Amino acid sequence: MFRRELNRCLLAGVLLLGHGLPALAQTQTTLPATVNRILVKNQLPEASVSAFVQRTGTSEPLLTFNADVPRNPASVVKLVTTFAALEALGPTYQWRTEAYVDGRIEDGTLKGDLLLKGYGDPYLVTERLQLLQRELRNRGLRVIDGDLVIDNTWFAREELDPGAFDGQDYRVYNALPDALLVNYQSVNFIFRPDAARGRVDILADPALANVEILNKMRLFKGGCGSSKSGISMVVGSSPARPRVTFSGSLASQCGEYQLLRSVLDGPGYAYSAFRGLWEEQGGRLTGGFRQGQVPAGKTPFVTFQSPALAEVIRSVNKFSNNVMARQIFLTLGAEKLGAPGTLEKGRRATTAALASQGLNFPELQLGNGAGLARETRISAGSLGRMLLAAHASPFQPEFQSSLSLSGLDGTTRRRFLNDPSPGDMHLKTGTLNGVTAIAGYVHSESGADYVVVMIVNQPKATWGGGKDAQNALLRWVHQR
Hints:
Elements lengths: L1 H19 L12 H9 L7 E7 L7 E3 L4 E2 L6 H12 L6 E11 L2 E10 L7 H13 L4 E2 L3 E4 L35 E8 L4 E7 L6 E9 L9 E6 L7 E9 L5 E5 L4 H15 L3 E2 L3 E3 L10 E4 L3 H10 L3 H16 L5 H13 L22 E2 H13 L3 H5 L3 E2 L19 E8 L2 E9 L5 E9 L8 H13 L2
Helix pairs in contact: 2-11, 3-6, 3-7, 3-8, 4-5, 7-8
């Protein structure tokens, strides 16, 4: 009798506890008050906001708000591209770059052309191009008495205008993908005021063999805060030997200034960087360059492998590298649906990879897979469900570690700096004019893990409190 009464009392206590915590039992459909106050203060309408929160390992969301509305996620769509790549290609997938000789090598001299064929390596940066050249030298090659032939046919050349998205032709974020992409097609122009000689020196890193720099910069006496300081860049139209003209002025008390730009297309950059590095190391290339195709059945002289996909996506997601994401997107198309890789094949291959994980998103529009497209669309709910699937995947560690750590690195290194637990959030950010988005994983103070997505599409989103509202939602989840 006593035991029966005790059990009844315990059950009553459990029921009372359950009535006291309704938020744990049902999905919340309103934004937290801390988030709503920021939206009201900045006149951001609720209709422009979507949010989704769900604890991993549970079957129902904790919070949904306009979660089924298709919105532009900006660079957050890179999560879809990289997750699909992990599932379809595997975390150990590697790209290759092949070198072929068309002629005889005698006493270190190739009597003929050197052919380079790219397969879309997103991470063929300067240092790795030097390693490729080192392998060529280790095989006895010192002089190329012929041309450098570039074979970039693994990808179709569909997009020809780097400024099509926003008119900024030479911004590195607009660099177009290419099957032989070298160093993201970026050049770091370095400006060094030389007060003793009364001039501004300009260096290019890497040194590009076929790019002429015309220096019209002036040095004036004064501090760096002077309004007289300014740099103007004009790129000539000659494809054979582009001329980059710099004009303007810098103050004598300024330190070194750097300007990162993309001034060549893929094949032109690959040739220029290869030749510059080759000659820098004492090699010679007597000819020029042209585009061509490696004959079928020809055996590579050197095959150079990229880092594994799991390592590559860290640069894509942590630092939101657009051209690397586009390389992966086209690679998916080429590998799964046959070369050449195209945007349409990339979209189909990505959708198929999602479907293989039970993820079917009718509203999904992938654009170019990187977020540099106004037509890109996904709902917060779909993105949240994909993140839950990624968390349950065997490749979860590789995927999650590719995201920016709050307050520590990547695009969120300056967020939550004053919070007591930096690194408790793995996040991907996205920003365009009128778009701000964030998505990822939050490790809460209670030890639970949550998927969090928030997208704001509104003209004032990027400067009118959109990020503050996201931060408030992330803190609300973190403190649960």
